[in-house]
Amino acid sequence: MQDYLERAVGDYHAKQPLAPGPSKETLRAACGLPPRLFDQIVAKHPRLRENQGAISLAGHEIRLSAEREEELAGLIELVAAQGHEPPALGELTERGYSKELIYAAGHLGRLIPLANEHWTTPPRS
């Protein structure tokens, strides 16, 4: 089971490098294991980590290419310009930003998800 989990998470990272990993519940359901047993297996696996409801391989980080960083800078600028009317996910995708990039920005803490799929920027320090 540990080998299966490691392969499944590794395959997920290969297909979706801008995501933290598959959701814990999706992965658990795919295994057909009871929640407590699944949690014990993940906790004892030296190469798996649970973070914010996702399972990832130890050492996996979301990394953006220079081109994606530039795209993200434009996205953040657009969201920040909205002020007190944060844009919805649909509006952002209509403007050409991928869901993958938007969610990656959320996982990186560079955008904050709000209710009803709206997005805002983190408070300035």
Q: Which architecture of the largest domain does the CATH hierarchy give at level 2?
A: Orthogonal Bundle
Per the CATH scheme, the topology name of the largest domain is Arc Repressor Mutant, subunit A
The spatial strand order of the largest sheet comes to 1-2
Q: Rough shape?
A: elongated
The amount of helix comes to: 40-55%
Instruction: Tell me the domain tally.
Output: 2
What is the rounded distance between the termini? 45 Å
Number of helices: 6
CATH C-level label of the largest domain: Mainly Alpha
CATH homologous superfamily (4th level) name of the largest domain = Winged helix-like DNA-binding domain superfamily/Winged helix DNA-binding domain
Structural notes for this entry:
The chain folds into two domains: 2-57, Orthogonal Bundle (Arc Repressor Mutant, subunit A), CATH 1.10.10.10; 66-120. The model has no long low-confidence stretch (mean pLDDT 94). It is elongated and about 45 Å long. The protein has 125 residues and is mainly alpha-helical. Strand 1 (48-51) and strand 2 form a beta hairpin. Strands 1-2 form a two-stranded antiparallel sheet. A two-stranded antiparallel ribbon has the order 3-4. The chain has helices at 2-15, 24-31, 35-44, 66-81, 89-94, 99-107, and strands at 48-51, 54-57, 112-113, 119-120.
List its salient traits.
125 residues; mainly alpha; Arc Repressor Mutant, subunit A; 2 domains; two-stranded antiparallel ribbon; 4 strands; elongated
